Amino acid sequence: MTAKKLPPVEVRLLRSSMGGVAKAKKTSAGNRRAHARKMAAARWLSRTPEQIAAHTAMMRAAREAKRKERSP
What we know:
The chain is elongated and about 55 Å long. The protein has a domain at 47-72. The mean pLDDT is 75. It contains 3 helices and no strands. By secondary structure, it is mainly alpha-helical. Helix content is 67%, strand content 0%.
């Protein structure tokens, strides 16, 4: 599994919180995934009206395309 490298600041924070151990703490994959989902949800819920409109338009376009595909 390839983990994305943390920016130096975050690595430093992790190291400092580990009492002088010069190794960034590894989190379990499930934990990281859960956090990623939580962040994604937070991003999704704090959308701006423009983002909402863009998404709606995108979905509508997809729906139209599907319908055109079905009807010959």
